[in-house]
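for the writeup, i need someone to sanity check this before i put it in the appendix. the sequnce is what the collaborator sent (i think, or maybe the updated version? ugh). structure was predicted straight from it, no edits. if anything looks off just tell me and ill rerun, i have time this weekend
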Amino acid sequence: MTPEWRAAMTKRRARALGFDSVGITDLQPPAHADALRRWLAAGMAGSMRYMHRQAPRRFEPQHILRGATHAVVVTRKYYHNDPPGKRVGAGRVAMYAWGEDYHRALQPPLCALAEYLKELGGPNTLAQWYVDHGPVPERELAQRAGLGWIGKNTMLIDPRRGSYSFIATVLTDLDLGLDRPFDADRCGSCTRCLEACPTNAFSAERVLDSRLCISYLTIEHRGEIDSSQHGDMGDWIFGCDVCQDVCPWNHKFAAEGADNALPQEPALATLDLRELLNITDEEFDRRYGRTPLERPGVAGMRRNARIALRNAELEASWPTSPVP
């Protein structure tokens, strides 16, 4: 069994488990380590102190899992057709959160893929899966595994599917044939994502200041949000999809998944603000305890609803221009 044969079998198994794309790369230091150092030094991680703690292993992925030499990188679409627009008295939720928490939803197929690698290499084969947790530089590994390029909005863009995808990895010591990196930058001269950002969170191409990002403010930030930032948050109460919504690659290629392995609930796309503002802890856990909304928790979601409701009230009070 050659490394190339094992790689081909691994990819076949990953697709059979429902992953949309799969690529394989090594765990050499990432090419953009210096950019991450500058980003952290500038304070753009905000209160996400774990980014500083994880940095040494992000700079040297071979130290994430002792003995691992390769990364099997997979993606899974979460795009939903016809996302709803604004609704009076409702707050918007980023598309990836319209259902069960993806960490849980992707666990069974990732476990199965890791077990398959052990079957290929023998019982002592190392295989550990990760999905958006730990110090794994997922987007960089995905680019090096040939799955797409990192766009100006810092998202991984698959030329066949767009950017609405989860990224997960299985680190292993199994000797596998490597894929060629995706070296092309197909953003070209387009800057729609940078220009559309409601909070001007992009200080440059591929440089996102988390402290200004609506996704960071509504999900990761703890405590109150500075009042000077409220107005730009609009009606977003969990995450933000603006920089993806305007991307031409998503207009061309994003498509809803054909299977039901990641079931979504469109009712979660917009939530009643007053209801959320007054929800009890118990009712919040019952409704949203298995969704990504548990990340900011009930206190964070009440805070977000309060800001969005105030923005809606201010918008409703604006005078309208007379029709000529």
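The first strand starts at residue 21 and ends at 26. The chain has a mean pLDDT of 93.
thx in advance!!
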